[in-house]
Amino acid sequence: MARTGDKMAREKLFQHLSDSFLIFAQHNTWNKSDAEEIVQDTLMTITSKYREIEFEISFSAWAYQVLENKLKSFFRTKTGRANKDKLLSDKLEASAMWIPDPSLQRKLRNCLQIIGKYGNQYARVINFSYLGFETGEICRKLNTTPSNIYNILSRARRMLRHCLDKGEI
Amino acid sequence: MSGCKDRRFEKMLFAYEIGILPEDEKRELELHVLECEFCLGELKQFKEAALHIRHDENTRQTIREIVDSNADGQSAVIRTRRLWSTIVPMAAAAAVIIMLVLQPWQIEIRPRQEAAAAENRLAIIDFVNYADPADSQQLGKIIANLLITDLSESHFVQVISGQRLSDQYEQVEYAESIKIDDKLAIENAKKAGASWILTGSILRTSPQLEITSRIIDIASGDIIGSQSLSGDSASTIFSMVDQLTTAVKSDLPVPDGARFEADRLIADFTTHSAEAYRYYLDGLDYYRKHLNTNARRSFEQVLEYDSTFAMAYYYLTLIKDASMLDGAVKYMHKASEKDGYYIRALQASRDHNRELRESILGQLIDRYPDETYALQLMGNLKFGWGQYDEAIDYYERILAIDPKNKEAYNLLAYSYSNQGRLDEAIKANDKYRSIAPNEPNPYDSRGELFARHGMLDSSIAAYQKALEIKPDFPPSLENLGVNHIFKGEYDEAAEYFHKMASAESPSVRSQGRYYLALIPLNQGKIKKSLEVIDDCMAADRLEGAEAEQGYKHVIKGVIYDGMNKTDAALSEIRQSLPYAGGKNHLYYWIMARSGNSEEARKDLKRNRDTLEVSPGVMADYYLAAGAVDFADGLYDDAIANLEKAEEISRSFPADYLLGQAYLKAERLEDAIRVFEKRLSIYESYRVCRGTWSVKMHYYLGLAYEGAKRFDDAITQYEKFLQIWQNADSEIEELHDSRVRLARLKSIG
Asked: Do A16 and B34 lie within an 8 Å CB cutoff?
């Protein structure tokens, strides 16, 4: 529908893409302005090309590939730039760093502790992630399956969301 | 939004957010998010929290503290174990010491047991009966349900009910005769959040029962265990399920504790009778579909075969007679752990102990987090108190677990409706209808939603649709008849009530006869109405339906009160009390109206402190107090009490009296507001109070007249006189409204 010129459909589609891409990009770089730059760049490419291209795969998959390429390109460029002008690069990075929210910190601490009373499995999984382990390694350490890990985390996330919204489990 | 279409991805969200997903799964998830509004919404809403968990040092520190603090608890358990292993060989006679040491050990281990159970979800589907493909004896279903009940006793495994899975099958248009292959079963189990699925077959039923089963790991599709059992001459289906439970727990990758936990014989906490159990499953099925007549019959059959089946008593308490709860309580020791919670919660409800009921349900939910019926009961508790936001939360929790839960959508719709959110109510009902398109109840509910919001014609259309599906569905027959009364279409109303009066169930027949009496009553034909009610009561006695007499005494009391025959009214209300289970607002209203208000007040005061804290009774208390104040002419006090009643439970009698109290206190705008609101709600309660409902037009007319809205007043007087055009001439309000109407028209 977006390709045939339906404006509302296009706006909706691009909004969804923009929201998704921002999350994906920030997953790779927690520098907010870098992420925004990557997303902008990606969307410009998509906007200019989506009408013409014959998709061999779905539109989503194609758009995702564009983002992946932009991310790779960004990190290659960033490494190069950093080598050239480290001071400037550090300054830029510092100015766009993510800043924690004290109020959310307090709420999170409270809720994580409440959930911790029901079992600390989720905390153990998260702690392993801090140490750089991925799912497979965590499964070996906890003698469980990936599916179980996802279930543990999913349950904890649900409880955490509820607690953050309502202040209780 | 009710959830992600593919729950596998939904479960991966947090793993993604904290960055532990392998690259291929991360990519797969991100591609999915591009097409899933629900998952994108989830990521957006939780983004800041996820960033904190991932990057904020303070939050990381909290996580480490939680890991460390529970690590201390674990080492304490180990110390206790070592102590135990030292004591046992030392003192064979020290059983007490062993128990003292064991008990703390077990208490400490409990949170971990249940944490383990929360992740270890096993789905069980009905066994396929190759010996009898039609499964005429329902053995496949019986074995599966017994297994579910038995394994649910474990603290290490959470069992996903077969009902949830079969509901998913039904709405994918599979006929009952079609057997679901394993792949589809695995898909559905995955969506339901299971780690494993147990499938099974009945190979032979005679001369002995022979069954096989296997456990499939959902993630990998691998078979992680298989079981094969052959019965002998002493075997019963129950003893074989016991063996199967043991075998399944051995094969499941759960902590060793699962093999050593106490395991009662399944027959000891269900029944020893296969016939009884078969009828029990039928009863549950009917109950879930709101086919209460059939459900009642099935549960009664259960008790024919096993008079100690606790849960049969439980359900009969809900759909037949509150006194059946005594049986459930008496045989509670023969119920499963889960069912024990339900019985105790119902007992707390009967004892009017809201806090205890809420506590028991809370414990039940903690123990069985996926138990949607418990979540529903908790939601209903909140609903009853008018805490609709909290009720909605519980119903949404059910839908997060079981997106095809019909009852949750139904209750969600009523919750929204009670908040005045009709659009959302209809959307929830749309979902309900889409899940159960061939059941009458969704359409009946829809009719009720429309009726509550003044859309009479839409309501009628919905009820008619319900009857197309099930022509003898009592609620829709009743509601259609009531709607036609509101429209003044009395012949049509009578047609539906006659259908009720020739139903199979004696109580439905009695109700049908009763409603036939309400037709003349709503037209102001009081004498005729009294005759029909007396005939109705005589028919009840002939049919042995004395239990249905209570509400007929009530309506006679209301009628006599309207005729200012307060002694007769009081006599009728007193005769209704044994059926009502206690004095209600009508009793106190008529006591006060018959000159006994002092006694009424003393009685109310005496009861006040012992009153249960439950919405129905508290609302009725304030209604009763308000009614007595009104009868005594203390209108401000009446208003205060009636407003409290209305706040807890917006009811027709509360509004009827409150509106009049406002009128007497010359708070005309308030009176108008209350009467207008109530007259826009088309509910059977209005019709059941006969003259009160129609008189509201008259009182609204008075309020408009007082507020100098003469055109509106004329409309209401005309409406009143039109409905009562053939009414008995002695009715006081009739005469007064004619006089007022004539005066207003002459003013022009």
From this structure: yes
How many of the other CB atoms lie within 10 Å of CB of A82?
14
Over residues A95-107, the pLDDT tens digits come to: 445 678 888 989 9
- Is residue B55 less than 8 Å (CB to CB) from chain A? yes
The predicted structure's pLDDT at residue A131: 74
How confident is the model at residue B283, as a pLDDT?
95
Mean pLDDT calculated for residue range B50-61: 87
**Cβ distance of A121 and B119 shorter than 8 Å:** yes
Is A147 at the interface with chain B, CB within 8 A? Answer: yes
The dihedrals phi and psi of B129, each to the nearest 5 degrees, come to -100, 95
Q: Work out how many CB contacts closer than 8 A connect A with B.
A: 163
B304: pLDDT confidence band, cut at 50, 70 and 90?
very high
Residue A125: Cβ within 10 Å count: 28
Rg (CA), chain A: 20
How buried is residue B555: exposed, middle or buried, by Cβ count under 10 Å (0-12/13-18/19+)? buried
Q: What angle do CA B178, B179, B185 make, to 5 degrees?
A: 125
Per CB-CB distance under 8 Å, the chain A contacts of B112 are: 119
B21 is written with which tokens? Answer: 């997903």
In this predicted complex, what is the ipTM?
0.85
For B265-323, give the DSSP string.
-GGGGS-S-HHHHHHHHHHHHHHHTT-HHHHHHHHHHHHHH-TT-HHHHHHHHHHT-GG
Name the token pair of B187.
Answer: 């898909």
Structure tokens at B116: 């383990």
Give B350 or B412, the one with higher predicted confidence.
B412
Q: Chain A residues with CB inside 8 Å of B59's CB?
A: 100, 105, 108-109, 112
Inter-chain residue contact B66 with A151, CB threshold 8 Å: no
- Strand partners for B160: B123
Position A34 confidence tier, pLDDT thresholds 50, 70, 90: confident
CB of A149 less than 8 A from some CB of B = yes
Secondary structure (DSSP) of B20-41: -S-HHHHHHHHHHHTT-HHHHH
Range with lowest mean pLDDT among A8-12, B82-86, B564-568: B82-86
Given this model, what pLDDT does residue B33 score?
Answer: 92
Alpha helices in B385-405 (DSSP H): 388-401
Give me the amino acid identity at B631: A
Residues of A in contact with B17 (CB under 8 A): 157
Average pLDDT over residues B242-258: 82
- Give the span between the Cα atoms of A122 and B63, in whole angstroms: 9
Instruction: Name the A residues in 49-108 with CB < 8 Å from any B CB.
Output: 60-61, 63-64, 98, 100-101, 104-105, 108
Nearest-CB residue to B49 (from A104, A121, A154)? A104
| pLDDT score at B165 | 61
**Sign of torsion over alpha carbons A169, B4, B5, B10:** negative
Structure tokens at B706: 């007082």
Q: What is the mean pLDDT of residues A136-155?
A: 86
Using the Cα atoms of residue B527, residue B532, residue B536 and residue B539 in order, give the sign of their dihedral: positive
pLDDT of residue B1: 47
Strands B223-230 and B158-160: unpaired
Whether B103 has a pLDDT exceeding 80, the answer reads no
Residues 6+ apart with CB under 8 A from B366: B114
* CB-based contact, B224 to chain A, within 8 Å: no
Mean pLDDT of B6-32: 90
Question: Is B110 a residue whose pLDDT tops 60?
Answer: no
Q: A40: how many CB neighbours lie within 10 A of its CB?
A: 14
Interface of B with A in 400-419 (CB under 8 A): 400
Which of A155, A157, A158, A162 is the mutation pick for testing B, counting most B CBs within 10 A?
A157
- Enumerate residues 6+ apart whose C-beta is below 8 A from B345: B357, B360, B361, B364, B377
